[in-house]
């Protein structure tokens, strides 16, 4: 049986290349340091894996990608632009998912984060669908950003119904009509 630490060591060289390549694309939108939502509940950052339906959550500020790896075995690749050939090769060598979108509690990419991870980036006619972001995120989304070359569209109701906003690379403020109304999301090229 291979332990998590042994698996990490075995993937170290390939993942180091991914980390270097990812860092070359620049930083993600800055998140404000929020520790609780208006109701006083602890803020969490969550990743939803579209291919498996798994969700992994950590306290805001904790290493979400390490938790995804520990719980699922997937390495998370995060880049705002389409992944490079080197990143794609490294991802194929490791079990990996790509961040395709992030939904934020607050305007200007602040507060807790709901990350949407998929087995590929946005290319061609691929659309990553999340028909229900989960009731824990209802009434929360105020900004969003696309990753891995994706543009994001948010919907007011589950299963892509009602009012919508997008497809946009990012929106630092979804506006009063869509603020805290998102229940489903799509990411596409």
Automatic annotation (TrEMBL):
Keywords: Signal. InterPro entries: G_crystallin-like (IPR011024), TAT_signal (IPR006311). Residues 1-33 form the signal peptide. The keyword Signal applies. PROSITE patterns: TAT (PS51318). This is Uncharacterized protein. It comes from Curtobacterium luteum.
